[in-house]
Amino acid sequence: MGENGDGRTILEGRGLVRGYVSGRVRTPVLEGLDLAVRAGELTLISGPSGCGKSTLLAILSGLLRPEAGRVHALGEDLWALDARARERFRLRHTGFVFQGFNLFPALTALEQVQLPLAYLGLDAHTAQARAAAALHEVGLGRQLRLRPAELSGGEKQRVAIARAVAKQPRLLFADEPTSALDGTNGAAVIDILHRVARTHDAAVLCVSHDPRLHAHADRILHMEDGRILDDVRAPAAARTDRQGETA
Ligand SMILES: Nc1ncnc2c1ncn2[C@@H]1O[C@H](COP(=O)(O)OP(=O)(O)OP(=O)(O)O)[C@@H](O)[C@H]1O
């Protein structure tokens, strides 16, 4: 797989078409969109409001069926799978981070991260150890017992990232993960996502129209008129290459 034969592409969309019908009118959103996302990189999708970024994430992650086109993810033809197999794929291989954090008010940080691991069939002891490790990884080792009301916005988003990362997915999707955060917290969150891509060899695909994030991505795909118009290697990649950093 992979448009350039680099062997690193683990998520690919080809000829994706999707619109929304309201009454008799169909509004086109994606019009034959192609993209390839590589493991070990943070790829940012930018583009004007309403251009279809969230729609694209939903299709690539197996939540929304395209009208035409294919999604290849980790060697699977995602939309050729039956609904159960696709759900199993999503559970095992994908993680999500959202703008609004989506945390349970009554649960501690540790419990938030531990809960989804139970669905993967991990026993309670292993799940707790893995949840604690994920929270340490995002710098929240001291906040394991705190509930959302006791955490800052940036910390809440880091809990959400730990929750997504704890099951060690190869595909991590983030939809506007920094838009509720100030500049400093936003940069910290995007740096964590960048590091997660490296350390877990995951494809991290992040939708954002926050230009402050561009400096932290490896690659920026600019979306407009239902297609990817521009594909740019970003400064973070150059910086990382220069430093020879691997984690
Ligand atoms: N469920 C839906 N029913 C009808 N139209 C929809 C639906 N979801 C999205 N749309 C429309 O499709 C277009 C693309 O929406 P989408 O949310 O994918 O864009 P976006 O680039 O993520 O926008 P933003 O940056 O503002 O979040 C918009 O015009 C939106 O109004």
From TrEMBL:
Q: Report the InterPro entries cross-referenced here.
A: AAA+_ATPase, ABC_transporter-like_ATP-bd, ABC_transporter-like_CS, ABC_transpr_LolD-like, MacB-like_ATP-bd, P-loop_NTPase
MF terms from GO for this chain are:
ATP binding; ATP hydrolysis activity; transmembrane transporter activity
Which key words are in the record?
ATP-binding, Nucleotide-binding, Transport
Q: Does the keyword Transcription apply?
A: no
Q: Which Gene3D superfamilies match?
A: P-loop containing nucleotide triphosphate hydrolases
Source organism's superkingdom? Bacteria
Keyword Transmembrane helix found? no
Give residue ranges for domain ABC transporter.
11-247
> Which SUPFAM superfamilies does the entry mention?
P-loop containing nucleoside triphosphate hydrolases
Give the UniProt entry's GO cellular component terms: plasma membrane
**UniProt protein name:** ABC transporter ATP-binding protein
Organism of origin is Mizugakiibacter sediminis
Q: What is the lineage of its organism?
A: Bacteria, Pseudomonadati, Pseudomonadota, Gammaproteobacteria, Lysobacterales
